[in-house]
Write a structure and sequence with these properties.
Shape: globular
Strand order of the largest sheet: 5-4-3-6-10
Structural class: alpha/beta
Oligomer: single chain
Distance between the termini: 7 Å
Helix content: 40-55%
Length: 383
């Protein structure tokens, strides 16, 4: 929960609605804001007066051609009111960012994990927070990792870190002396895109990630879709090619077998008789190597099947592709889009597909976005 000195503590539910709309969609004129919230002008004026006096909301002067009238002064949230730390944990590194209230990155750093013991990791993260914030305490810390997370604190399973049943939230809270939220990294990325990124202008969108595994997140009606098996990477078992290679679990032609970096690299190495990296495979495909072109085309076709399946089943307003292996969507984009069209009804609209180049700091920003959401909504874990 928020402490008594937080600027969000005294806000009423109506004032919080104003702040949230400005945070996600601002700056907005008073007329626009009143229309969006279904409020009368006097009601909005009453609500914003308190917010302006407290410094949570500010007036922004817009440059307008001189018409002799009063200059417009839209309202906006003061994005510098608080800072937040977001951290993305991988098997080997901690990628961390310091953001403002809109999850814009102000500073970043990367640290090698070394010892994966949870207590040691928590101490490392405390040092990261101290270094990033330079002693000016952030409002909260968000930590994202690949795996199953429960109650914003308990890591049920994190295979890349070799963790099982780790109560990480209290460890980070004790080490940093800050409210700490632990979350699945894809869920965090989804929330960041929902409030501050490529999903802010739609009420539903899906994100497919490709890399060491295949993941999918879904926002429907402005809410993240989750369930008891969230974080297991179930989309990786989705069948794409009945004649494709098998994944480690024995599923032939599933998303993991067709799309993950290691599978593509292993197939290429088997074809050439020498060890190859994922980027080498794509480099050769781009310059016209016949074997690598065929391998990449097959995987790009499979990716198109997966995108079409998500579009057909969930019908999201937008689909985002990202992850450390997303380059295959660019190298094989023509084949991927052909596959999408073939797997869709001829009368179906073309999916709004966006490819976002991977950056670990974007995942760290996602963890910060979750900390921002929980802070503004007064949903921080109990301490």
């Amino acid at each position: 929960m928020l402490n008594s000195t937080s600027p969000w503590t005294p806000l009423s539910d109506s004032e919080r609605r104003v702040v949230l709309d400005l945070l996600v969609h601002g700056p907005l004129s008073r007329t626009e804001l009143a229309e969006r919230l279904g409020l009368s002008t006097p009601s909005l004026t009453r609500l914003t007066r308190t917010l302006l006096e407290s410094g949570v909301v500010r007036e922004v002067r817009e440059e307008q051609p001189h018409t002799g009238g009063r200059p417009l002064q839209p309202l906006d949230v003061d994005e510098g009111l608080q800072t937040f730390v977001g951290i993305k944990l991988t098997a080997t590194h901690a990628f961390a960012v310091l953001t403002d209230l809109r999850a814009d990155i102000r500073a970043s750093l990367v640290r090698e994990l070394g010892d994966r013991d949870p207590a040691a990791v928590a101490e490392l993260l405390a040092g990261v927070v101290q270094e990033l914030s330079e002693g000016h305490g952030p409002a909260a810390v968000g930590v994202g990792l690949g795996g199953q997370v429960r109650e914003s604190r308990f890591v049920r399973r994190a295979p890349f870190l070799r963790w099982k049943d780790v109560d990480l939230g209290p460890l980070v809270r004790e080490a940093t002396d800050l409210p700490s939220i632990v979350t699945n990294d894809l869920d965090a990325l989804m929330e960041a895109e929902h409030w501050f990124g490529d999903g802010r202008d739609v009420t539903s969108f899906a994100t497919i990630t490709i890399g060491v595994g295949v993941g999918m997140g879904l926002i429907m009606h402005d809410r993240l879709v989750g369930g008891p098996d969230s974080g297991l990477g179930l989309i990786g078992h989705f069948p794409l090619d009945p004649f494709g290679p098998s994944c480690p679990d024995g599923h032939r032609g599933c998303a993991d077998a067709m799309l993950v970096n290691e599978s593509i690299r292993a197939q290429a190495s088997q074809l050439t008789g020498r060890s190859m990296t994922y980027d080498e495979v794509l480099d050769l495909a781009e310059v016209g190597d016949p074997a690598m072109e065929q391998l990449v085309a097959r995987s790009a076709h499979a990716l198109g099947v997966l995108v079409a399946a998500v579009a057909n089943i969930a019908q999201p307003g937008r689909i985002i592709l990202t992850g450390e292996g997303v380059r295959i969507a660019r190298v094989g984009e023509v084949r991927m889009r052909e596959s999408i069209r073939r797997m869709r009804d001829p009368l179906a609209s073309e999916p709004d597909l966006r490819i976002i180049d991977d950056d670990p700091l974007l995942w760290a920003r996602g963890a910060a976005a979750v900390a921002i959401q929980r802070t503004v909504l007064d949903l921080l874990p109990e301490t």
